């Protein structure tokens, strides 16, 4: 359950969003992991408020869901990976989210700081694991090759691997290049879990203007709009076509980025549409099984049609950080 949408970048007034109902609905559908960050404006506060409502506390104990948040990114051009700030950020996140511990903490957008700063922040998070405040440690960012390189360096220099790495916008219908880094992440870096965030490219694959915050160039945004028209002419929507592709191709891995009620319902529908079967575990919860290749074949013409429209924009990645960025451009003050 992605929390980035509960931010003024994507919504003028996030406080008007039905976050309480969204989380309750998500939990009831078996979506039991929340991904947020202090950088996402009021996101942690809104999620924390939802988590203490009776609809959640009476049915879902803390041990039944996972909270993933981040540390180190403060504002668009402000970062602080110092030990004191990482510790303060974790304490603040616990307070906002009304929890004694955080399941996963990622160093946020590691490409904007130096590798040495990343190593230092990860070392601090490992210390917090030893103290019981954090359970798992990860890094997040856009350039997946850098994420892989850093994972190898963490394992080598700190003597223990990262538990998780979160890549975003790099394993979807428009850009699937995350595959190129999986072997290095898993085998050389020893990373346990790779999280595929923003499966709709931060709203890019909705076919509508994602917002002025989005770094995608106009040519890519226009191409996605054409792809949306292509799907509409065939009785489908681009988000559903794109989500089916992700579910069929990102097998047995972790996916993050669902933020709206209609996305919850559409995504479950898309998942069911490519799942061969499901069964209930001992507690009566639905467990999804493997993808049905026969059903996948049905969707391949749509996927191929959309990817043909992408043309030169297929597997395109924008610059992150932007050209001219200088590490340590701004640092926060405690």
UniProtKB/TrEMBL annotation:
GO terms for molecular function: D-arabinose 1-dehydrogenase [NAD(P)+] activity. It comes from the Eukaryota. One of its GO terms (cellular component) is cytosol. Pfam families: Aldo_ket_red (PF00248). Signal peptide: none annotated. Gene3D superfamilies: NADP-dependent oxidoreductase domain. Residues 19-271 form the NADP-dependent oxidoreductase domain. One of its GO terms (biological process) is dehydro-D-arabinono-1,4-lactone biosynthetic process. SUPFAM superfamilies: NAD(P)-linked oxidoreductase. Keywords: Oxidoreductase. Coiled coil: none annotated. This is Aldo/keto reductase. It comes from Tuber magnatum (white Piedmont truffle).
């Amino acid at each position: 359950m992605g929390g980035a949408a509960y931010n003024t970048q994507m919504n003028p007034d996030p406080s008007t969003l039905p976050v309480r109902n969204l989380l309750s609905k998500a939990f009831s559908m078996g979506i039991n992991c929340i991904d947020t960050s202090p950088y996402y404006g009021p996101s942690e506060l809104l999620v924390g408020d939802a988590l203490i409502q009776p609809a959640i506390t009476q049915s879902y104990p803390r041990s039944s869901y996972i909270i993933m948040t981040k540390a180190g990114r403060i504002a668009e051009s402000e970062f602080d990976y110092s030990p004191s700030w990482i510790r303060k950020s974790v304490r603040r996140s616990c307070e906002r989210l009304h929890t004694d511990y955080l399941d996963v903490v990622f160093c946020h957008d590691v490409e904007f700081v130096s590798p040495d700063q990343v190593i230092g922040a990860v070392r601090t998070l490992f210390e917090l694991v030893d103290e019981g405040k954090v359970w798992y440690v990860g890094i997040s960012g856009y350039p997946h090759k850098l994420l892989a390189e850093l994972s190898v360096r963490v394992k080598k220099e700190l003597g223990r691997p990262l538990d998780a790495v979160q890549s975003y916008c790099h394993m979807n219908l428009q850009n699937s290049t995350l595959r190129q880094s999986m072997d290095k992440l898993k085998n050389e870096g020893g990373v346990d879990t790779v999280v595929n965030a923003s499966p709709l490219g931060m709203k890019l694959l909705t076919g509508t203007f994602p917002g002025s915050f989005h770094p995608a160039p106009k040519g890519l945004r226009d191409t996605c709009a054409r792809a949306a028209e292509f799907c509409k002419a065939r009785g489908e929507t681009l988000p559903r076509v794109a989500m089916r592709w992700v579910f069929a191709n990102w097998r047995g891995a972790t996916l993050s980025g669902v933020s709206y009620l209609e996305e919850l319902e559409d995504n479950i529908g898309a998942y069911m549409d490519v799942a061969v079967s499901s069964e209930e575990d001992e507690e009566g919860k639905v467990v999804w099984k493997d993808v049905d290749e026969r059903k996948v074949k049905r969707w391949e013409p749509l996927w191929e049609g959309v990817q043909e429209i992408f043309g030169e924009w297929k597997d395109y990645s924008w610059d992150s950080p932007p050209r001219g960025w200088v590490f340590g451009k701004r640092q926060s003050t405690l």
